[in-house]
Amino acid sequence: MGITIQEASRTSGLSAHTLRYYERIGLIHPVDRSVSGHRVYTGPDLDWLVFLTRLRSTGMPIADMCRYAELRRQGPETSAERRRILAAHRERVRERIARLTEDLGVLDMKIEMYDTREHT
Description:
mainly alpha, 5 helices, elongated
């Protein structure tokens, strides 16, 4: 038993349009259909959507996500390549966090300057 695309949308935070798009481009496997032809998402489908959402929110390009999904479908023999993709992405995320931390420091300094001006 599974859930509808509307329920999957609410649960995952992805729009129904995005879910259909992800299926069309191969990020998710063709979702099972009910007797009436409606998509039926399962627990593992939702877990995968959560992971895809994390990859996307950390800035992984769709092309890299598609490559990862393709390798995942090929099975455990692709684990080294999948690990390499994730490790490279992790490094890009760390670099982005470092830049954001520097930018935040500049903002903090500027705000402190204004606070000092306002209280003198």
